[in-house]
Amino acid sequence: MSNLIEARRGQHAVPIESLDAAALPACRKRLTAAQRHWLQASDFNARAGSVLLLPDADGKLARVLVGVDREEPLWALAALAQSLPEGDYALAAEGVLGDTRLAALGFALGGYRYARYRKAPRAPARLLVAPALLAELQPLLDAAAQVRDWVNTPTEDMGPADLAAAAHALGKTHDAKVREWVGDELLANHFPTIHAVGRASHRAPRLIELRWGKRKHPHLVLVGKGVCFDTGGLNLKSGDGMRWMKKDMGGAAHALALAGLVMRAMLPVRLTLLIPAVENAVAGNALRPGEVITTRSGQTVEIDNTDAEGRLILCDALAYAAEQQPDLIIDFATLTGAARVALGPDLPALFGNRRELREAVLAAGEAEHDPLWSLPLWRPYRRMLDSYLADFANSGASRHAGAITAALYLERFVPDTTSWLHVDVYAWNDADRPGRPRGGEAQSLRAFFAFLRQRYA
């Protein structure tokens, strides 16, 4: 549960007033003489990020003043949940932040702490909000916390079977049907690339499928890359490169959480969730560079690099999704370091074969302060994945345009007649920032939920 609670009549809460330098004179006039003296003695100037606790005549906390940047409404109050004394607070009507929804959302996101292995040092401050706002925000906060929890959990407790357990739990909550193809069942049911990537692990690879909704509704397929740990395979990563590879199932975490939001909102869609879940491990039977795999679609792929494994497990899932001729396929994947070099850690890279869909997602991301950035499916770069003995390779010699060539690889498994969006997401915060603690992060989740509500509601 989040630290947002429903405001009730007569319930006491300390007001939080957001202000900047322009609003400070008007604020000063509303204070008592003692509080004005305290403000002056504290040298409070309403600089963004500054906080002043104002006492009443009895020395009790009466008001909180917070300096904010009006251009950053989502994160303006995000530090307060962990920095204010424990207790109940409410947004003051005099605050300069006009969007109460974003301010409350950021405050609540700042209350998150991952506490599976170590108890949180303190409870976060609580924000009282109107019942309607709580009902709107709580699903988003729950979904974000789920993504963060799943990505933060080490692989020993978040392997392929654990991802399946999360899908089964989600299915039980929303009366959805869940099934799996595990180990050699993948070969028997023609998912060869998922099996090839995961066969070297002591934990069997699998494809997880969740189905929900009525057949008469538009068919939406969500696909999430579930590489629960990535050693790189025989193209072994360095120690630094391998250190945080528990997060390589971040795409699966996003797809799971978005599926939960869709079902919780009862959107009128026929939903299919697909998660190819593997560990990319090293053993005597590991996938080797130079092998050629005939994928589910019938296209042959030469393995140039076993560390380009995410696109391999996704291609069978995408081919299976496309066979069902859905209205829309969306896949999420922590796919390339090249996307991070191009856009940094905060901006997921968005690709898609329909301009109007890309523009709708970007607009939803801007409105939700949950941004993405569009990159092109520049088809001349397909030559970078040329193979001399297969239809194409999973990687190539050039380091140029790595995020684009990965997306172009995936595009080969989606027919032109099927609408498709691909998100190359980081799913991680490298350092602590207000509202964004170090570790797993939900990125573009709110944007895609808003987009789906607009498309299907």
TrEMBL record:
Molecular function terms, GO-annotated: manganese ion binding; metalloaminopeptidase activity
GO CC terms, sorted: cytoplasm
PROSITE patterns given in the database record: CYTOSOL_AP
Name assigned to this protein: Leucyl aminopeptidase
Origin: domain of life: Bacteria
Keyword Methyltransferase: no
Pfam families: Peptidase_M17 (PF00883), Peptidase_M17_N_1 (PF21337)
Similarity comment: Belongs to the peptidase M17 family.
Organism, as annotated: Metallibacterium scheffleri
GO biological process, one term: proteolysis
UniProt KW keywords: Aminopeptidase, Hydrolase, Manganese, Protease
Residue ranges occupied by any Cytosol aminopeptidase domain in the UniProt entry: 305-312
CDD domains membership: Peptidase_M17
